[in-house]
Design brief:
With 129 residues, the protein is of the alpha/beta class. The protein has a single domain, classed as Rossmann fold. The chain is built from four helices and five strands; from the N terminus they run βαβαβαββα. The protein has helices at 19-31, 42-51, 70-80, 113-125; strands at residues 11-15, 35-39, 55-61, 85-90, 105-108. A five-stranded parallel sheet has the order 2-1-3-4-5, with helices on both faces.
């Protein structure tokens, strides 16, 4: 029998500039038992990452205003926080594997909530120790 881990000790940073989509994604994360932080821009996301060392997974939209889009954010996070798991989502463009940072995943929008949660669970298991 596999041991379960305390999901609330693992935080997911959701980066989405559309307020309703941000709240919806954060609700899914929290309903699955994880801690959720939300940001509406890459700059805000970086500030949250600097403040909260329990963030283990970045889930970012591609299209965002500000100093960088979600793909640039994903690469910046991979460079600065190498162990971070990264999911990039978009409803407007298809992100190719070579555009993602190493070990990054792409979810086209709308993404199935059950698939999203299963992916978070799989990623979070790496950090359960």
């Amino acid at each position: 029998m596999t041991e379960t881990f305390d999901r609330s000790r693992i935080a997911i940073l959701v980066v989405e500039d559309e307020p309703l989509l941000l709240l919806d994604a954060m609700d899914m994360v929290e309903d699955a038992g994880f801690t959720a932080y939300g940001a509406t821009s890459a700059d805000e996301a970086i500030r949250l990452l600097e403040r909260h060392d329990n963030i283990r997974i970045l889930f970012t939209d591609v299209d965002m205003p500000g100093s960088m889009d979600g793909l640039k954010l994903a690469h910046a996070v991979r460079n600065r926080w190498p162990p971070m798991s990264i999911i990039v989502a978009s409803g407007h463009i298809r992100v190719m594997p070579e555009d993602l940072p190493r070990d990054g995943l792409f979810f086209p929008k709308p993404y199935p909530p059950a698939s999203f949660i299963r992916t978070l669970e799989t990623m979070a298991e790496r950090f359960a120790d």
